[in-house]
Amino acid sequence: MAIQLSDLENDMQVMDYVVSNLLKQGKKSVESFMNYDTGEYDQTGDCVYRGFIRNEDGQIMDTLKCAVGHIISDEVYNEQLESQTIDNTHVLEAVKTSCEKWAVSDNSLGMLKVLQRIHDMVDPERWEFFFTYVRRDIIDEISGDSIMSSQSATPYAQLLTRFQHDIKLNEHVFGNYPKIEL
User: Which of 25-34, 131-140, 167-176 has the highest mean pLDDT?
Assistant: First the structure.
């Protein structure tokens, strides 16, 4: 039986749910724009809670979600949440309403900020590595709670972004590395 948002009770469950869904999705959730030169929709816009893959006629073929978007139910989601961060009262209320059993703490917000930064800044083919690394780094395996405060999430996420750039540079200079198991 598939896990539902209403079943999520702690940070570890939320992280596992988000990561599982992002890895299945395999693409960033971004705005799509009509490229009038090619007549096709480009998926090159800013990251959004709900992104849509459209065919050449503009019809929605698939819906993508960002890290936080995966924990906002379709019933609660509205377009006014777009362009707002997880710190926004309306976005946070949408998450709390969608995941009613989960007591969202400051550390929960820190975890969500890091997950969101990975979604936004890291190439999807590297997500699994980064999510595995971060889970080991910020989740207390016994309590299931995040140990990442909201305040420390931004500098931590910036380090991850620099790490992503270092990996890209090394691959460019030295070629691809074998998959690293954590």
Answer: 131-140
